[in-house]
Amino acid sequence: MPDMSLFPKQDKPLPPSPIHAKQLVICSGTSDWPSKIDGDTTSLAGIIGASKRTLFRPQYPVMVVNCDLPATTSSKSPNSASAYLFPDNLYFDDIPLDKVDKFFENYVRPSSTEAVQSEDIPNPRPASPLILICGHASRDVRCGVIAPLLVEEFTKVLTEKGLYFDAETNPTGIRVSVSSHVGGHAFAGNVIYHPSDSSSAALPASVWYGKVFPHHVQGIVEETILNGRVVQPLLRGYGPRKW
Q1: DSSP states along 73-99
Q2: Would you list the DSSP string of 8-42?
């Protein structure tokens, strides 16, 4: 069990999750991030951070986070990156770092009502379902403490139910990953479940939970993942919807 003195009981309702139109989840292969992930200007997060004024639209907020899943770039080159895009439920193996503006133009910005295929950006593939757990220890110790415990418990429960991702035996299974800051450290553990388009228990959007502890995991898997029902006491909100 975690040191519960780090997680004082909150009598107030959980605050709503930040509103965003899309979420870009970058596969960084590590969870040892600096306090701000855009500090490395050679990374995808850093390039996006340095170009916010040209890439983003104020009325169309995009949440950019890192996760600890490894990149799957074809050449393992530092000149490209891998990322998920929600609610589009797409996975990009190779995003050229010198074509980030084209990537945003084709897939991320509101003008991208329909993805425009481009030779500059290799075609994406459908994303597998993903559970993100905020574990950004350099931003807040609480996330660093609770995330490994939640990863362990989600992995255990999903494996027992035959839902956990395995490249050979269950390639459409659910991946579990630690993410960088998503907001609301005081309400750790923060857990976001992104179902796939083909998930058997259809949900209207990604589901965002707060104050999640290992003893909640079994219920989240059974209620939300298997049956499409929201666990209301843990609900912070929903992720971006695919209109």
Answers
A1: -TT--TTEEEEEEETTTEEEEEEEGGG
A2: ----SPPPPPPP-SEEEEEE-S-S---SSGGG-TT
pTM: 0.89
**85 within 8 A of 107, measured Cβ to Cβ:** yes
Identify the band that residue 243 occupies on the pLDDT scale cut at 50, 70 and 90: very low
Q: In terms of DSSP H, where are the helices of the chain?
A: 44-50, 52-55, 100-103, 141-160, 217-220
The answer to whether 167 touches 120, Cβ cutoff 8 Å, is no
Q: How far is CA 125 from CA 6, 45, 197, 240, in A?
A: 40, 21, 12, 19
Q: Model confidence over 196-210: pLDDT tens digits?
A: 875 656 676 799 999
Same fold, 22-126 and 128-238: yes
pLDDT tens per residue across span 76-133 = 556 899 999 999 999 999 999 999 999 999 999 876 545 555 667 888 999 999 999 9
Q: Which fold would CATH assign to domain 22-126?
A: Glutaredoxin (3.40.30)
Pick one of 3.10.20.30, 3.40.50.720, 3.40.30.10, 3.30.930.30 as the CATH number of 128-238.
3.40.30.10
